[in-house]
Specification:
Order of helices and strands: HEEHEEHEHEEHHHEHEHEHHHE
CATH architecture of the largest domain: Alpha-Beta Complex
CATH class of the largest domain: Alpha Beta
Shape: elongated
Oligomer: single chain
CATH topology of the largest domain: 2-enoyl-CoA Hydratase, Chain A, domain 1
Number of domains: 2
Strand content: 15-25%
Largest sheet: 9 strands, mixed
CATH superfamily of the largest domain: 2-enoyl-CoA Hydratase, Chain A, domain 1
Number of helices: 12
Distance between the termini: 93 Å
Helix content: 40-55%
Radius of gyration: 28 Å
Number of strands: 11
Length: about 300
């Protein structure tokens, strides 16, 4: 015998289904907004770590260091995020521009002092010259035993193509005001006064490098001065020289840092979101920048000063 369901019972199930649907929509919106928030902060992770407190940020410093802008912005974002308990600088670089390296060094120091956030450097294959300059600002430096570390020095070099111009019967025409205005012109040899001028600049930058490393490492200036020959060492050799604090790879640096900031178990790693590129660069990769250099690059011929291991 068929029993017909009462209107009240049907109404109950209808309202229950409706409430369940509204709840599901609410949950979907909530997690969508959470994901947008994470993306908006420029973070890229494997879970919704914004609602957890076991996050460690990793900032990669690789290749030539030519501008501080991207790295400093990443550091600033992570410094302002209270859910990020520490930052690891994952370094694999021979250094780069003197001013760029110095600016990143000061940003690392600023975050350590203002935000009281632990920053650790983990050197992979190389952390030399400007890259070591940056690492020296960290609370602790890790390097593999075979990593290249050091190269506290400054270099400026360019190609003199004056003989080539002469061979091609071309002449450089320069009109200037100021005896040193065209110092370093690649069309001729340096005068003694110009050589002394450049040497003075390089010596001054070298001393800044030495002083800042001594400050970051909390070592006497004289101790760093004795090591500032431009020489590199392996991680194993650098440890007794106090240029690094511990030999070990990235995983060891990560787990030690987690314990140091009170994270129990494996931390959640967050990295900066990768920037999007145009169609041409996506197809050609980084080579498109060298295939189609900017006008500024084409006009660039002045000497550059570098904290770089060669």
């Amino acid at each position: 015998m068929h029993v017909q369901e009462s209107p009240k019972r049907r109404s109950f199930w209808l309202w229950l289904a409706l409430a369940g649907g509204v709840f599901a929509v609410f949950i979907a919106i909530f997690w969508s907004l959470a994901l947008i928030s994470i993306r908006g902060n420029g973070f890229q992770g494997t879970d919704f770590g914004s609602f957890r407190s076991n996050r460690i940020a990793v900032v990669d410093i690789s290749g030539l260091i030519l501008s501080p802008d991207t790295i400093n912005k990443q550091l600033e974002n992570f410094a302002d995020d209270d859910s990020v308990k520490a930052i690891i600088l994952h370094i694999n670089s021979p250094g780069g521009g003197a001013a760029a390296s110095q600016e990143i060094y000061h940003e690392v120091l600023r975050i350590r002092t203002k935000h009281k956030k632990r920053i650790v450097a983990s050197i992979e294959s190389a952390g030399a010259s400007g890259a070591y300059y940056i690492a020296s600002a960290a609370d602790k430096i890790y390097a593999n035993q075979a990593s290249i570390v050091g190269s506290i020095g400054v270099i400026a070099q360019w190609v003199n193509y004056g003989d080539l111009l002469q061979w091609a019967k071309l002449k450089d025409v320069t009109i200037k005001a100021g005896a040193l205005k065209d110092a370093g012109s690649p069309t001729r040899d340096l005068t003694p006064a110009e050589r002394a001028y450049f040497q003075n600049l390089i010596d001054n930058m070298h001393q800044q490098f030495i002083d800042d490393v001594a400050t970051g490492r909390q070592l006497p200036v004289a101790q760093i001065q004795a090591l500032a020959t431009g020489q590199v060492w392996t991680g194993q050799q650098a440890l007794p020289l106090h240029l690094i604090d511990q030999t070990g790879g990235f995983h060891e640096a990560l787990m030690d840092t987690a314990r140091a900031v009170g994270i129990h178990g494996k931390p959640t790693i967050v990295r900066p979101e990768k920037p999007s590129h145009g169609l041409l660069e996506s197809l050609l990769g980084a080579s498109s920048r060298s295939l189609f250099p900017s006008p500024e690059t084409l006009l660039e011929k002045s000497p550059g000063f570098y904290f770089m291991w060669q």
